[in-house]
Amino acid sequence: MKEDKETKKESKKEEFFSEEELEKIKRNKEQSNIKWLWLVLILIIMLAGVYGSYWYFSKERIAFQKETTKEEETSETETSVPEEKKEETETTKETEESTKKVYVSGSEGLNLRSEPSTEASIVIGMPPGAELEVLEESEDGLWYKVKYDDKTGWCYKEYTSETKPES
């Protein structure tokens, strides 16, 4: 019975369409099927991208949270040191650093800057051999906070020397 219905449909199509038109219809169906396949493939790729980025960023979030937790644990450990010992250590460090003297070793002098950065504004230019009193060192260890000629600022550590250069 199904075969009869299909043959009837085919014969009706053949009555209305020529063979060339029937071939075009078949090609169009195939092309539309291909278009649907591409559309489904693109949607799958997009969903995979969304899921992948969610997964990636959630891993990053977890790593960040672990780092934050480690920093909190470290600060808790530091607070367990008795306050008297902390004050002694800080005073000792300040005394050691404040008495430290360095000299400008750059042949063209050295800029005293407002912040520990080459982008920071220049407070004053210091001549070669100028004596500087070190107040502190930057966290990255690349800069000194110094006092020079009643001015305080930051200078790049690489262009200083602990020994006074010969004039």
Write a concise keyword list for the protein shown above.
single chain; 167 residues; alpha+beta; SH3 type barrels; 2 domains; five-stranded antiparallel β-sheet; 3 helices; 7 strands; 20% strand
Written account of the structure:
It is a single chain. This protein is α+β, with helices and mostly antiparallel strands and 167 residues long. Helix content is 55%, strand content 20%. The chain folds into 2 domains: 2-57; 91-161, SH3 type barrels. The model has no long low-confidence stretch (mean pLDDT 77).
**CATH fold-level label of the largest domain:** SH3 type barrels
Order of helices and strands: HHHEEEEEEE
Q: Give helix % range.
A: 55-70%
Q: DSSP helix count? A: 3
| Shape label | rod-shaped
In short:
By secondary structure, this protein is of the alpha+beta class.
How are the SSEs placed, and which strands pair?
Blueprint: H1 2-16, H2 19-79, H3 83-98, E1 101-104, E2 110-113, E3 122-126, E4 131-137, E5 143-148, E6 151-156, E7 160-161
Antiparallel strand pairs: 1-4, 1-7, 2-3, 4-5, 5-6
